[in-house]
């Protein structure tokens, strides 16, 4: 039996696939931020989580995970070291099925130490791309995110 040819070449996928390109960029950017944030003891994902908590106050676990675009398993894995290190707390809500998450005083202090490092990483990337171009790119990323959130069968968000 003759071997079936792949419908698209691997070169085409690696050079034109939206998912491949966005994931590669996300990994590279995350690694750059992690290197810059290293002296603070926080990783980029942890900083993002603490910023969200600092802004939101006490929030249900599931709502915060959803707002950050994380599934519960990934979110749990990211929360565990922050809880262990006393940077956030988790407690039961009025409904026992709901877990409430909040940043602690130690978490706010860690965030304050990390912010200047984050600003350095942010300046490096945005200056390299160009401030005006970054604004346009950010809007494009938001559009891609919105398109990816639409269920293609139903035309709705999951």
Explain what the structure shows.
This protein has a three-stranded antiparallel β-sheet. Helix content is 65%, strand content 8%. The protein has a domain of 103 residues: Winged helix-like DNA-binding domain superfamily/Winged helix DNA-binding domain (Arc Repressor Mutant, subunit A). The protein is built from seven helices and three strands. The chain is globular, with a radius of gyration of 19 Å. The protein is mainly alpha-helical and 158 residues long. The mean pLDDT is 88.
Helical proportion, percent range:
55-70%
Task: Provide the CATH architecture of the domain at 42-144.
Answer: Orthogonal Bundle
Intertermini distance:
41 Å
What's the alpha carbon Rg, rounded to whole Å?
A: 19 Å
Biggest β-sheet: strands ordered side by side in the sheet: 1-3-2
Uncertain spans:
none
Gross morphology is globular
Helix and strand composition category: mainly alpha
Helix count from the secondary structure assignment:
7
| Multimerization status | single chain
**Tally of extended strands?**
3
* CATH fold title of the domain at 42-144: Arc Repressor Mutant, subunit A
Level-1 CATH class name of the domain at 42-144: Mainly Alpha
Mean pLDDT comes to: 88
Identify the notable features of this structure and list them briefly.
single chain, 158 residues, mainly alpha, Arc Repressor Mutant, subunit A, 3 strands, 8% strand, globular
